[in-house]
Amino acid sequence: MSDYDPSWSGEWTADPAHTTIGFIARHAMVTRVGGAFDDVEVHIQVDAEQPDRSSVRVRVGAASVNTRNQQRDDHLRSADFFDVERYPDITFVSTSIEEIDQGGFVITGDLTIRGITKQITVPVDFTGVAKDPFGEIRAGFEGRRRVNRRDFGLEWNVPLDAGGVLVSEKIELTYEVSAIKAPGGAGQDAGSRTDSTPGA
Fold it and tell me: CB neighbours of 77 closer than 8 A, spacing ≥ 6?
């Protein structure tokens, strides 16, 4: 039996205004450059009593990449990187979820970028549930995971005279999700535990 409130079971959808899915790469071997995607959808089916029966689906619009530099963003959208004309979406679909400690999960699933699908495992921390001032029930999730972009066909690079390459092959994925409980069902009657955190 889980320690989570059974009323949390059900469908949760990410609030795009308070959700960030991004990445960090090394540039010229010395600096870190980050970006995020403005078009993000996250759907979480929660089974609070048996968390390993929960599931996650993520869709990211590749063309929405935003690094705060138009020239760089256009390059990332091109065939050198995401090739958004041919592969408009980046997706992740969970295949299993394991709770490794209270509020800490490992989610295994299929990540698809540029039409290439690889199974990866991502750590996710559940940061709690609260009712916001507008009556919405919200849950927070966050984490980060390094991947090799070459595994997904993102192979463009330029060698540096001093050694190394212009853009790192290892990319750090970052994710912070604020998910809202779907209306109706027990999730709207979370009562005194809607402002609790895991294990509270």
Answer: 62, 63, 65, 84
